[in-house]
Specification:
Radius of gyration: 18 Å
Helix content: under 10%
Shape: flat
Number of strands: 14
Distance between the termini: 28 Å
Strand order of the largest sheet: 3-4-5-6-7-8-9-10-11-12-13-14
Structural class: mainly beta
Largest sheet: 12 strands, antiparallel
Number of helices: 0
Length: about 200
């Protein structure tokens, strides 16, 4: 998978904790039917696993073979990778992901394993990358905007239930603005700058 931060091999509908694949915006790519199982058939209770060199890999609690409660995972260099709360193997509540240099990558809430509500993402250099909202089903909704690393507009437009609607604008780095039209009507009207 290109654009993901870190991944272990995924072989079934369940995932190991560190094996979460984060998309290019730092959000977990987890399907609604997938749950996070505790690795290596861990017993109920506290769980901690380390890389071969002794650096922490993941820490949390297991209940009935599933990740539950507050969990953290670390990059191999010791920097925090992500932290979040799980219930029966699915993310619920605040979620944060980080680059391996310690910079915040994504921040928002999860419910039943999908992103919900307002989310923000950042580039590796710490500049804001995107801002927008998700429905309770994890679909993009309302105005979304993206910026290039180091600043400068990248894209903006409205979404309804995960689909682009109305006019979307894109600013390629070093290029001129482009415009695309999509069917449907933005429920919240036009998206105006500055969104981010």
């Amino acid at each position: 998978y290109s654009g993901g931060m870190f991944a272990t091999l995924l072989l079934s509908s369940s995932l190991s904790i560190v094996g979460i694949i984060l998309d290019s915006h730092g959000l977990p790519l987890i399907h609604a039917n997938q749950v996070l199982e505790c690795p290596n058939n861990a017993n109920d209770g506290k769980h901690m696993r380390s890389y071969r060199d002794g650096t922490k890999m993941e820490k949390g609690e297991c209940l009935n073979g599933l990740a539950t409660g507050f969990w953290k995972a670390w990059h191999a260099n010791g920097e925090l990778m992500w932290k979040g709360t799980l219930n029966d193997g699915r993310f619920e509540g605040g979620f944060r992901s980080y680059y391996d240099n310690g910079t915040l990558e994504a921040k928002g809430d999860m419910w039943d394993g999908v992103p919900v509500g307002r989310w923000k993402t950042w580039h590796r250099d710490g500049t804001l990358r995107s801002r927008g909202s998700y429905t309770d089903e994890g679909e993009k909704m309302g105005c979304w905007a993206w910026k290039h690393a180091g600043g400068g507009r990248a894209e903006k437009g409205a979404w309804v239930d995960g689909d682009k609607v109305g006019s979307h604008f894109a600013w390629p780095q070093g290029g001129s603005r482009g415009k695309s039209k999509y069917g449907g009507v933005a429920e919240q009207g036009r998206c105006w700058w500055p969104l981010i």
